[in-house]
Amino acid sequence: MRIGIIAALPGELKPLVRGWVKMPVARGSGISMWQREREGEEVVAVCGGMGAAAARRAFTAAEFAGSLDAVLSVGWAGALSSEAVAGESYLVGQVVDAQTGERFATGATDGLRLVTTGHVADAGEKRRLHQSYGAAFVDMEAAAVARLAQMRGIPMHCIKAVSDAVEARLPNLNPYIDVDGKLRMSAFLGHVAVRPQYWGSLIQLGRNSSAGAVAMARMIERFLAEGVQQ
To answer: Which CATH number fits the domain that encloses residue 62?
Structure first.
């Protein structure tokens, strides 16, 4: 069985892929990829950046050495309600594409709902998304992964770690995300360096993200150990 794990950023996968084999990728592709083989099961974890286009590139990279039997969309998400606690990880039961209205079921019938948008949602949009879709959290990639899985007729599962609480007040990241879905870190740091009102929330974001990645890695390992349903 061949399973693909699709994320946006290396930090989301770091606790999971510790000890895995780092795979070679084309220079300048923006892709990072790791592989683990165990008892006839091959798992490939790929990150390609934020957003739908980056998720599609990562999915394609995961398929390069062979078709997938199942796929997991994983990574950080923003909380839309108090159901989603920062620093914790959750199974997602349904993914909603806010741009098209499409809804995708996952294997977790008792999981929470996630909505995917085309950009990082601010506090006001978080409220609107929760009211419109009844979702617990928001991301930028899961709907693209779900759509590709549906096209291939393979199961899609989703595990998300909450990086920012529903009440978090963060600077606008969108102007600093490039066309490849990467954060232009130097420019972003220059922006926030003169805005101390965001320093505390960014420090907390970092702590939540680290804790969430560890919690998510544990959940993914348990999920893989129990056997991914085809």
So the answer is: 3.40.50.1580
